[in-house]
Design brief:
The structure holds two protein chains of two kinds. Chain A contains 27 helices and four strands. Chain A is mainly alpha-helical. In chain A, strand 2 and strand 3 form a beta hairpin. The N and C termini of chain A lie far apart (about 90 Å). The chains are: A mainly alpha, B mainly alpha.
Chain lengths: ~725, ~60
């Protein structure tokens, strides 16, 4: 540093690496859990028997646990480990508070344990990647704020005046995730573990995918780009290829990302202009993403022999390559014509995993191989094992992606195949399922290879730590305090923006706010978007109970409720969905993947007995079905007493129930159940089933999408 | 008042507005990063990850 300063001006400090170590271990443990769950549910789709006829093991409940564990437990802990490690070093200071760091760590693990208990129990708000119920949501927000406070206090006491670009990415992450998470999870509690979203229908969908897409952006992407900008230069021991490019990358990425959410809702009842915005910005996103990828890869230029030899660099180069691949695929999938084929298919599932495994898992692995020997002051146990992990995971991932491409495109084409007479070629949905079962086996195999790779990583780290010197002492460092560093070492007004964290944070916040406000606010405040239709009535008390079963069982993980204005959707499912039909849906249940058929037009399609038999054992009705059995719905009783409370919360949110309907909710629900059971008795169903959950679920399914159909029928008859 | 303003607003205008804001913002960022005199700043900023190992004498129990 500056030579004129006296040596007594130097301050001595150390890093809180204990905390980093804790997060590294947590990453390894939860990583194994998340990957194992993924492999398990992959096998469930290949063979329905693995659902085990037990509620806690069914696909609909474990899939949310898998996604939440992968994102928040595995990748979350990896982010925290990398952020704490790099931030302290980049700012030349110890973390502001060891205590806040510990609260962050244990609070986060508590949330994960809470998720691991509640989600299999079916306690879920049924919004993808935000399934946790309100008490856990509050905890997430509180712990996130703790993390943020500690982070900003650390920036305050830094000894490095200039703030490196990695830290910017972290700041954008902290601010944006807080905003997204809080807004999307706004809900009114009914009980300790049940709530209804304050948004309904189309608005809920818009908010959810603004969140869902930006969870990918600001949880899986921006923090990892920060980590990339720190760990790749460190691992190769040379600065990033172009610092300028990294700045353009940063600003354009965070500005553009926030707009892209609606690409999850193309061909839906979302207003057209919002869809257009989503598509436009999704395609624009390709440019900053590739700017970042090129910057990362060019940092490695001329050192490819090292990349070939050293596992750390191998993982990092592969991660950046997959980042490039999935950020190319993303804009492609946002193009409307491509989207009409790919949406609701496994192509999207493959795309997501080329991001999470290819980018997040690979970079995390490289980062762990880099940090662990340094943190424990030792050498890596085995480079050979690291190489084996690399190949096992990479080959596994390729199996995954290729099988999902094949499955997605095959199924998408089968859904839309129409013969000369204008009829669907594959009328039975299950035909299109059966066709891709071999791909499900291949995918599960690929996933297993990725999991095995991760277990090798765990073993390698375990051995490394075991061989490390026992007397671990915190290394001491020296640096000048900020007050002793002359202000303008590098001159220029850049310091004004790029060295001032507060101003910078405000600007970053504004950048993400522009998109959010323009996209969300008009749709939320203007009554143009709350499309009303007098024919659409709120759900009856029994239907509300049934809908909550649907939400609890995670039926949305396999079934959509959105008939798109596409000829193949109309032929297969019926009338195109309209915004007005969803106004009482809290949460909306459009889904994102059709493993089973769309259900928005299921009401009145079959008789009650059909559903009664089908839910108990789908294969009795559809021999090739892969849907789980739901025997417990035939044992669990409907909780009639809470219906008054539930309906009054829904009424408070705007559902026009009468006084009578609220007060008499349990009685009216029982009366409706009686009507259904009277019909079922004729087919041999025992009368004692009248108070079981299956009856409520049938009531709900039979109600789906019928409100606006009925009047239409009248019109048709009257014109005849 | 607010609802009047909103209802007179054609929604396609928002789409155009959004892209205009974006391009203005993008041009500004480009202009900012390529300003005169920024090169030396960026060169040194890019080296921040290496400052920790360089220069200062380390105290400590090892080495």
């Amino acid at each position: 540093m500056t030579t004129e300063t006296n040596s007594q001006d130097f301050e001595t400090f150390s890093y809180d690496d204990k905390l980093t170590k804790m997060f590294v271990i947590a990453t390894l443990i939860w990583g194994a859990v998340a990957l194992f769950l993924g492999v398990w549910i992959a096998f469930e789709l290949a063979s329905y028997k693995l659902n085990l006829d037990l509620p806690w093991f069914t696909f609909g409940r474990l899939r949310p646990l898998h996604t939440n564990a992968a994102i928040f437990a595995f990748i979350g802990n990896a982010i925290f480990a990398g952020v704490y490690y790099s931030t302290q070093r980049l700012l030349k200071t110890r973390l502001a508070s060891d205590l806040l760091g510990r609260i962050h760590f244990w609070g986060w693990q508590l949330i994960i344990v809470g998720a691991a208990i509640t989600l299999p129990l079916g306690i879920s708000s049924a919004k993808e990647y935000a399934e946790l119920e309100w008490p856990l949501d509050i905890l997430v927000a509180a712990i996130w704020v703790t993390f943020g406070i500690n982070f900003f206090l650390t920036i305050q006491k830094r000894r490095e005046r200039h703030i490196y670009v990695a830290i910017w990415f972290y700041i954008a992450t902290i601010i944006t995730v807080a905003v997204l998470y809080v807004v999307n999870n706004l809900a009114i509690p009914v009980s300790f573990m049940k709530s209804y979203s304050v948004f309904a229908g189309v608005q809920d969908a818009l908010v959810q995918w603004w969140y869902g897409h930006n969870a990918v952006a600001f949880f899986l992407t921006t923090p990892f780009l920060g980590l990339m900008y720190y760990f790749i230069p460190k691992a190769i021991n040379r600065p990033v290829y172009s610092y300028r490019l990294s700045i353009i990358h940063f600003w354009s990425l965070i500005f553009v990302y926030i707009w892209a959410g609606p690409h999850h809702l193309l061909y839906s009842t979302l207003p057209e202009w919002v869809q257009t915005l989503g598509v436009g910005f999704s395609i624009a996103l390709w440019a900053p993403s590739w700017g970042g990828m090129i910057n990362g890869l060019l940092t490695l230029r001329g050192a490819w022999d090292r990349v070939r030899r050293e596992p750390i660099l191998k993982f990092m180069a592969t991660a950046v390559t997959f980042y490039g691949m999935s950020t190319f695929e993303g804009p492609l999938l946002s193009i409307k014509s491509v989207n009409s084929l790919a949406h609701f298919t496994d192509w999207i599932v493959g795309h997501v995993h080329s991001g999470t495994i290819g980018w997040n898992y690979m970079l995390t692995s490289g980062m762990i191989y880099f940090m662990v020997p340094k943190l424990w002051n030792t050498k890596l146990y085995s480079e050979r094992l690291a190489n084996i992990q690399f190949w096992s995971s990479t080959i596994g991932l390729l199996f995954y992606i290729v099988s999902m491409w094949a499955a997605g495109i095959t199924q998408g084409l089968m859904w839309r195949a129409i013969d000369d007479t204008g009829k669907l070629v594959y009328k039975d949905f299950v035909e299109t399922v059966d066709k891709i079962i071999p791909m499900y086996w291949l995918r599960a195999f690929g996933g297993t290879l990725v999991l095995i790779g991760f277990l090798i990583l765990i073993y390698n780290v375990y051995k490394t730590i075991k061989n490390a010197p026992k007397d671990q002492v915190e290394e001491k460092f020296k640096a000048l305090p900020l007050s002793a560093v002359p202000l303008d070492t590098h001159g220029g007004r850049h310091r004004k923006l790029e060295g001032l964290p507060l101003l910078f944070s405000v600007l970053a916040f504004l950048a993400i706010l522009v998109g959010s406000v323009i996209e969300l606010v008009p749709s939320l405040v203007s009554n143009q978007f709350i499309v009303m239709d007098a024919r659409v009535k709120p759900y009856s008390a029994l239907e509300v109970a049934g809908r909550d079963v649907y939400v609890r069982e995670g039926c949305y993980t396999c079934h959509s409720q959105l008939v798109r204005p596409l000829i193949e959707d109309k032929l297969r499912y019926g009338r195109v969905s309209e915004a007005a039909e969803y106004v009482y849906d809290r949460p909306f249940q459009w889904g994102s993947r059709r493993i089973g058929p769309d259900l928005h037009r299921i009401g009145k399609k079959y008789g009650n007995i059909w559903h009664y038999r089908h839910m108990l054992n789908p294969r009795e009705i559809t021999p090739l079905s892969i849907m789980p059995n739901y025997p417990w719905l035939y044992k669990n009783k409907v909780k009639f007493e809470v219906l008054t409370k539930k309906l009054s919360v829904l009424a408070a949110l705007g559902a026009p129930y009468s006084e009578e309907e609220l007060k008499q909710a349990p009685a009216m629900a029982k009366a409706q159940a009686k009507l259904i059971i009277d019909e079922l008795i004729a087919d041999g169903v025992p009368e004692k089933m009248v108070n079981k959950e299956i009856i409520a679920l049938i009531a709900y399914l039979q109600r789906l999408g019928v409100d606006m159909a009925e009047e239409k029928k009248d019109e048709v008859t009257s014109t005849k | 008042m607010k609802s009047q303003v909103l209802s007179n607003f054609a929604w396609t205008d928002l789409t155009v507005l959004a892209f205009v804001i974006f391009f203005a913002f993008f041009i500004f960022v480009l202009f900012w990063t390529f300003r005169k005199g920024s090169k030396s700043y960026y060169d040194s900023a890019g080296n921040i990850p290496f400052n920790e190992d360089e220069g200062e004498p380390k105290l400590g129990d090892k080495k």
